[in-house]
Amino acid sequence: MAESVVAHKRNIERKTKVKTGCATCRIRKVKCDENKPFCQKCVNTGRTCDGYESPFRFFTSQPINNVHVGGIKSDFGLRPIQPTFIEITPKDIDLLNRCFSTKTLFDVKLGCDEEAREVLQASLTDPHIRHAVSSLRALREDLETSGDGPASVAQQTPSYHYGLQQYNMALGGLASNLSSRGSNELKSALLCCQIFISIEQVRKNYDAMAQHIILGLRIMHEYRTRPYFAAANTLVPAHHDHLPLLDVFIIKLFAAPCKFADPPATADISGSTLSVSLISPQQQPVESRDLRTIAPDMRTELTRIAMSTLEFLGKVSQVKSVEIALQLLSEKAALLESLESWLNDLELVQTETGPPGPEPISVCFLRLFHLILKIVLLGALDSSPDLYAALRTENDRLQGVANNVGERVRSYIRCSGTSSGRRGRSTVR
């Protein structure tokens, strides 16, 4: 009898361990259909669907010890933005715009003034965004002060530790309240995600950057920030108006030119080859320069496709009729075809330049940008069952390319430090 009671208790415990699904189904201990943004099982039974666990939980960092930051000085005004500000100045916007990307040359304009203004305005009342902005400013100051060579990693500054502390606070605070699906919470999530992408670029954690991109775009798609086709010839308006358009920000971020360059391998004293060395373009053999010359030409065409994608997304946001939406589907198909042709051209040029070898980092970034554009376009106007499988495949590819970019950049920085023998920026102007 006792054994049957124990077995019955174990069966109950097993049934309570529902690890996926919406919060309502997990509390009720029933299987959830995991439909987004609202569980259909809850909707059909007249219940309120309480949403899903925050995707940002994957990024929760280890606790960071408090550090004294009173002595930190910064051109960016490193102190956390206080909610007492009543006006966002053009200088504030320009400074944050500069912080958004380290992939670019430091003096390249991203054209993200509106995004910077929205972030700063929201930071006046949202503590999570305020922590995220403070983190980005601190980490960017550390980068520009200490450089991005190997020595800068070994000699982490109070500014760097403060930036990580603020980042951890932004992540933890956001993860705790993202289960609420109100417009304010979604806006906070998307703006924070925008800053997190920039933070991970500063930290050169491109794999984590890709995860933020994937999760942010997933939030946009699941919560329907733009109109979409729910079925054949059935156009559904956006579920949430006036949310930050993270996909537009990401496209602007990656449309900027890449600052990294990695000359071809050279032999060391022992006769083995180094994957990266710092040889000026003038010193490179003609045959090794061929592959490097494809990056500007290929980037020009990809940037053209990106600008067309931005125009397309603007039209999608404003679409009102099925007829216009169907025309936009044709435009979407043409853009996807252009992306496929671009990739084929890239592979063809690389084949013609000679035997396979390490790609320039700038070309790796182009591959990353290509996949981002493809993922954004695939999700536009679409909610078909097959879409999620397609997005999962492309997201996995994006993560793989981002991991490769991270490894290449770290190698570049190590070799840059070894070659120069001192700390400094490994930028190519």
Description:
This protein is an all-alpha fold. Among the domains are: 35 residues, Irregular (CD2-Gal4); 167 residues, no CATH class. Helix content is 60%, strand content 3%. The chain contains 15 helices and 4 strands. A two-stranded antiparallel ribbon has the order 1-2. A hairpin with a 2-residue loop joins strand 1 and strand 2. Helix 6 runs parallel beside helix 9, helix 11 packs antiparallel against helix 12 and helix 12 runs parallel beside helix 14. The N and C termini lie far apart (79 Å). Pfam families: Zn_clus (PF00172). This is Zn(2)-C6 fungal-type domain-containing protein. Keywords: DNA-binding, Metal-binding, Nucleus, Transcription, Transcription regulation, Zinc. GO terms for molecular function: DNA binding; DNA-binding transcription factor activity, RNA polymerase II-specific; zinc ion binding. InterPro entries: Transcr_Regulatory_Proteins, Zn2-C6_fun-type_DNA-bd_sf, Zn2Cys6_DnaBD.
Describe the structure using short key phrases.
429 residues; mainly alpha; CD2-Gal4; 15 helices; 60% helix; globular; disordered C terminus
- Class by SSE composition: mainly alpha
Q: Treating each run of at least 4 consecutive H or I residues as one helix, how many helices? A: 15
> What separation lies between the terminal Cα atoms?
79 Å
Radius of gyration: 24 Å
Major sheet, described briefly? 2 strands, antiparallel
Order of helices and strands: HHHHHHHHHHEEHEEHHHH
Helix content: 55-70%
The order of strands across the largest sheet is 1-2
